[in-house]
Amino acid sequence: MKNTTIYKSFMLAVSLGFVLMGCGGNEKQAVSTAEAVPVTVADVDTGDSSTILAGSGQITAVNSTSLSTRMMGYVESLPVKIGQKVRKGDLLISINNVDLRAKKAQVEASIMEATAAFNNAKKDYERFQNLFNETSASQKELDDMTSRYEMAKARLEAANQMKNEVNSQFAYANIRAPFNGVVTNTYIDEGDMANPGVPLVSVEAPGKFEVVAKVAENNISSIKEGTKAQIQVKAIDTILTGKVSELSASAQNTGGQYLMKVLLDETEAKILSGMYATVRLETDQNGNGKQIVTVPSTALVHKGQLTGVYTLGQDNVALLRWLRLGENYGDEVEVLSGLSKGDQYIVSAEGKLYNGANVTIQ
User: Is the model's pLDDT at 90 over the cut of 90?
Assistant: First the structure.
């Protein structure tokens, strides 16, 4: 009986061991076959010793304008569309100007009347001047004719100036292209009401472009007009060259940052207005500058008071690394510690990441 009990206990332990081994094998298989998360990675962006990361901004055409009107009226005609090339003087938009045309007709009638009065006054003045020279007219009569002549001349001049004023208003009723370029936007349709000061159509002249960016106060002393720049345009994965063309001397109304314009050198790259660009300035030609490590702010992970980024570990495993951050430069953040040159970090993922997650690089 005792032997039978021992045998049953032994068989139960063996069976339990096989069950546990089977469960462990299944768990290991489940982990090993877990689907990897598709991710996009990037190398750590480290500025060389001769550059500083000044900031980022949008590319704009140097010669661009948004046109508006000084008068209120319905849009009669909009003969252009977005992307259309125009030449200087081409009609862009026509606003109903019935009242203006009526005023012009009144002014022209006033000019005709004033011209006739002036001609008569001029003839009388010249006749009385001859009579005065022949002592056939008194000084008072000549003075009266002179005053009449001067008054008629002044009325004619006033009528002509009124005509110039009306003609200048027609420039705001029939808006024309101020230079050769391309229509970049239209903000109104035919039949809509145009209001004074509200943009109606935008035109830009392609060819010359610039980047408008903001510079932190700790870098402003190293920058001056003419400073060379490297401009990275992410949309077309290109690095262009340029130089600082304008630099604000005050940061009072810009949140402690100084406004800077960087004029791009001529290039055959297909850049367009509105593209985002990152600006690096060559401020130290002797190689005495500091290294700057930056990452996009969208790649950061926030947990409470801690901020980190997922890096790419061995065997394509995501590893969360905590960082100490510095200043913001547009859409990038300076990393003071936690990353170094040669590291790879995860920019984006098509799934939920966690420390130790298997990933696959797209």
Answer: yes
